[in-house]
Amino acid sequence: MTGASRVRPHLADAPILSFSSNDYLGLACHPALAAAAAFSAARSGFGAGAARLVSGDHAEHRDLEAGLAHFLGYPAALLFPSGYQANLAALTALAGPQDLIVSDRANHASLLDAWRLSRAKAVFYPHCNATRAADLLAKYGPKARRRFLVTESLFSMDGDVAPLAELADLAAHHQASLVVDEAHALGVLGPDGRGLCQAAQIQPDLLIGTLGKAFGAAGGFIASSAQLRNYLLNRGRTFIFTTAQPPPLAAAAFAALALITGPEGQARRLALLTRIRQLNRGLGLHDRPDSPIFPIILGEDARALAASAALRDQGIFAQPIRPPAVREGTARLRIALSALHTPEDIDALAAALTRLPDAP
Ligand SMILES: Cc1ncc(COP(=O)(O)O)c(C=O)c1O
User: Can 184 be counted among the known catalytic residues?
Assistant: First the structure.
């Protein structure tokens, strides 16, 4: 891919219309992010030079942490170079062999890896099934030292939403810590883009986010109590043993946060919502949540590959997603919309999708 736009990049020197980035608000090419990064690079240099706990801690990191905590209504936040590392730190620092992790079966690979590294016992409930999560907590919870209930809020590959309020009730009832990964929702969904936990009026013990999707930058974070932040700072191996996020990246993410919380963020969310509803109508999908992620499940890998190739022939880029990113037999096209898609783009996509042999 070449070019600044994640929606209209060039692929092999030809323009293409992409529905395969997570740049939901189109901030990756926003001049305010580039300007903030350039200013910070001039002020603080580019690479952080060391881990945060050694000498890589910069004002940009502190400002961003304070801004994110405020945005989400938490006392504190801790930055990581990526969301993947944030998820690893969350579970490996807090859970151990005597503990239980109750996890949605569709949770992201980083949450699975976090469980594996933690050496806790894990049990998986069918996707979004709070009743089965309750059964698992009741069955295995009492034997465990600590219990963790772990879910994404907006699921990355299915585009659907976890039953967050029910899960929060369950966590409280079973004295489990609730861990929610809001990677795909923050900036996009919920009141002023504050995510689906705010929309559900719950506050998980750990709320995890990435700066690489709607924020248009890179990095990850955990919002929590100040005490947990301190603990993670001292025990999170993916925080301690890695070079800090470059200060210009933190500055760019801070600029994105200012846009997200201001009128421009509001306008971009509205544009995105309008496009989401347009595509729902175009595909005849009713009762779908307002989600920018549209999975078109095709089954066998070959069918997803063929559908992606057919779209490519029509100037549309939609990468096939295959196992292990999704379960065997559920290969799919994952269509992700951005505020930068125009109504004409959505019409073109809907028309191209209905022309596929495996039309939705
Ligand atoms: C649900 C979810 N959590 C975490 C991550 C990891 O975030 P990052 O890309 O910042 O490492 C991703 C994807 O990248 C994701 O989809």
Answer: yes
3-state secondary structure of 18: strand
Question: Can 156 be counted among the known catalytic residues?
Answer: yes
Task: Answer yes or no: is the C-beta of 158 below 6 A from any ligand 1 atom.
Answer: no
Burial class (CB in 10 A: 0-12, 13-18, 19+), 163: middle
Ligand 1 and 159: CB distance under 6 A: no
Rg (CA), the chain: 20
Whether pLDDT at 118 is above 90: yes
Q: Is 156 in the pocket of ligand 1 (CB under 6 A)?
A: yes
The model's pLDDT over 209-265, given as tens digits with 9 standing for 90+, comes to 999 999 999 999 999 999 999 999 999 999 999 999 999 999 999 999 999 999 999
Active site residue 87: no
Q: Give the per-residue pLDDT at 155.
A: 98
